[in-house]
Amino acid sequence: MDGNSTKRLTPRAVAVLAAIALLGSTGAGYAEQSQERVDLAAETTATEAAPAGPVFTPSDEAEFAEAFNAFDEPVEPAIPDHAVDITTIEPAAPPLSTSLGSGIASYYGRRFHGRRTANGERFDMNAMTAAHKTLPFGTRVRVTNPRSGQSVVVRINDRGPFTPGRTIDLSRAAATEIGLIRRGHGNVELELLD
Q: With bands split at pLDDT 50, 70 and 90, how would you rate the model's confidence at 97?
């Protein structure tokens, strides 16, 4: 080899030697750090495993069954005077209702949809509302069709019906719920909900 080729290889050789030296020292340093961590973990485990107080050692004389004897009588907890006995609580009662008797119900729908009702709101044939001659606005009434057993709760928001012999005018949606659409009217039972 001539002097020129040595000069060309020297930078490569230097780079390879530097990499080997760097990896070798890094690997050795890593190994030392890992060993230190293992030693520290072993010391920590040894100190945590050592109990702070006296160590329990079971007696050879004790029998297994004697160690788990049942109590003769269970201990009843002391109940304070302000405590509530939940065994005496009854479930909530359904809403109270007062029968208004029976009558003839009819319905009104598309022809009056969007017009003002007697209480000032717009009539919506798809809402659960009704018209009654005397009940206050906002009163909730359960209307039951005795033929089908179906019932619906409506809110009074209008006055009527103005046809003689009719008791209540339901919205189209309420009449559909209890099956009055086909006949147009029918006998119903009314209950005032509190």
A: confident
CA distance 105 to 184: 9
Beta strands in the chain (DSSP E): 97-108, 129-132, 140-144, 151-158, 168-171, 185-193
Between CA 185 and CA 171 the distance in angstroms is 12
Residue type, 116: R
Check if the beta carbon of residue 137 is closer than 8 Å to that of residue 171. no
Task: Note the pLDDT of residue 6.
Answer: 47
pTM recorded for the entire structure: 0.52
| Residue 32 pLDDT | 63
- Reported as type and span, the H/E element at residue 9 is helix 3-49
> Cα dihedral sign for 131, 136, 138, 144?
negative
Structure tokens at 182: 């086909």
Residue 2: predicted pLDDT: 53
Give pLDDT, residue 116: 95
